[in-house]
């Protein structure tokens, strides 16, 4: 039948594929299936080559035990639609259901295991605990393909430890992502602008350390804004705040100034008195970022800031953008993200958008994907790659 990248003949073999199927959901409805679509070619290539494909993936950040809100069942169903073939779904990750589902696979068939993060061993910091879980995962397969680019920066059992236990190969998606990102690390055309937003604040504050030495401008939006504003001594009300990162932000502001790197923060923000929920109509108000009321929280960059950020991007030759500028899922707080996305489409150079939610934002706000140079499936993973950090999920593939 067929071979797959470095694994040799896979026909008749059980091949465990780590995909990143972490898609945004509204209840059980998938609001953007970009990551599932991106995962299809590798899964299809293996199935077409006659492998018995066992897909493992996570959804969200459940607490190491089953939580129906984070079930991969709707994702498995969508994968089946996109593949145009039945996809079996195991109700657990390594237990009886998984074992029976895998045992029932014929050559060319595909199964999805329940959310790998329903198992405490997956994300454990303890090598032995992670290893014991990886042993159980590895027992379900004869070979491993690492194709979840969005998680290659995580030293987790299904990304890292399992590769040490099975013959392994890099999947086509990971290889393609690394190919594009390499172009941003090797002598990027300047000005090189990095735009950072989103809600994974502590992860992303960490990457600024290295980016200060690489980018010409850093443009800050999303939830990260408020730790910087607080570091400058401003009131941030009920906004997202990482109180233990204030010194770090002060240090970044000082270093950016000394190095002549433009570190742009919003001059105005859109606030509300509560985080948006289905229970009430949003009541957005624009305030100067130095005057956020104590009972309010920042949910988007303001209109003046949106203009300033578009201006900052106008002459860029290379742009990497990760993280929405605001809570774009709610129209009242989507304007900043829309403005930055629109500015990126006008850049005369290489533009890369990275991250599950950033990519979803571009698509759900109605932009044509072709207007961007590359839309990456990984935000944190791309950022760590651009920083020059070692990505455990990639380096482990280079080991025997
Ligand atoms: N000011 C803010 N406060 C809280 N959440 C925010 C804010 N701005 C953006 N977000 C949220 O950040 C989320 C995306 O963050 P993140 O996961 O870090 O991005 P990505 O998946 O692109 O890497 C979105 O769901 C968005 O609603
Ligand atoms: O959504 C993801 O990353 P991203 O938000 O950095 O793009 C990946 O699925 C990784 O998820 P994690 O950040 O919970 O490990």
UniProtKB/TrEMBL annotation:
It is found in: Cytoplasm. Gene3D superfamilies: Phosphoglycerate kinase, N-terminal domain. Pathway: Carbohydrate degradation; glycolysis; pyruvate from D-glyceraldehyde 3-phosphate: step 2/5. One of its GO terms (biological process) is glycolytic process. One of its GO terms (cellular component) is cytosol. Substrate binds at residues 20-22, 35, 58-61, 117, 154. It holds the Pfam family PGK. The keyword Kinase applies. Keywords: ATP-binding, Cytoplasm, Glycolysis, Kinase, Nucleotide-binding, Transferase. Its EC number is 2.7.2.3. It catalyses: (2R)-3-phosphoglycerate + ATP = (2R)-3-phospho-glyceroyl phosphate + ADP. (2R)-3-phosphoglycerate binds at residues 35, 117, 154. Belongs to the phosphoglycerate kinase family. Monomer. This is Phosphoglycerate kinase. The gene is pgk.
């Amino acid at each position: 039948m067929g071979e797959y990248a470095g694994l040799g003949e896979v026909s008749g073999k059980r091949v465990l594929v780590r995909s990143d199927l972490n898609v945004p959901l509204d209840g059980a409805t998938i609001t953007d299936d970009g990551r599932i679509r991106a995962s299809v070619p590798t899964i299809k290539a293996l199935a077409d080559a006659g492998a018995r494909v066992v897909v493992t993936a996570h959804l969200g950040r459940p607490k190491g035990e089953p939580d129906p809100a984070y079930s991969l069942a709707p994702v498995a169903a969508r994968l089946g639609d996109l593949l145009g073939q039945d996809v079996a779904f195991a109700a657990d990750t390594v237990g009886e259901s998984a074992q029976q589902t895998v045992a029932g696979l014929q050559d060319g068939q595909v199964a999805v295991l329940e959310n790998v993060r329903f198992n405490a061993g997956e994300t454990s910091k303890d090598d032995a605990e992670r290893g014991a879980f990886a042993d159980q995962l590895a027992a379900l397969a004869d070979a491993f393909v690492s194709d979840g680019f969005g998680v290659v920066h995580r030293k987790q059992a299904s990304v890292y430890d399992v590769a040490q236990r099975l013959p392994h190969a890099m999947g086509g998606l990971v290889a393609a992502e690394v190919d594009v990102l390499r172009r941003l690390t090797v002598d990027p055309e300047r000005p090189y602008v990095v735009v950072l937003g989103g809600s994974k604040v502590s992860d992303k504050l960490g990457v600024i350390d290295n980016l200060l030495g690489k980018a010409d401008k850093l443009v800050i939006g999303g939830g990260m804004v408020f730790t910087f504003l607080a570091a400058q001594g401003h009131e941030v009300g009920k906004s997202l705040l990482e109180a233990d990162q204030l010194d770090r932000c002060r240090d970044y502001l000082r270093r950016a100034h000394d190095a002549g790197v433009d570190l742009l923060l919003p001059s105005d923000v859109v606030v509300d008195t509560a985080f948006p929920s289905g229970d009430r109509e949003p009541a957005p108000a624009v305030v100067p970022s130095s005057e956020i009321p104590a009972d309010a929280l920042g949910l988007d960059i303001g209109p003046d800031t949106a203009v300033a950020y578009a201006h900052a991007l106008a002459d860029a030759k290379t742009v990497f953008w990760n993280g929405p500028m605001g809570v774009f899922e709610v129209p009242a707080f989507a304007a900043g993200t829309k403005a930055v996305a629109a500015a990126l489409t006008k850049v005369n150079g290489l533009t890369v958008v990275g991250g599950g939610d950033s990519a979803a934002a571009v698509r759900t706000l109605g932009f044509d994907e072709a207007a961007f140079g590359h839309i990456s499936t990984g935000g944190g993973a791309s950022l760590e790659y651009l920083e020059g950090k070692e990505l455990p999920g990639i380096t482990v593939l280079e080991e025997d």
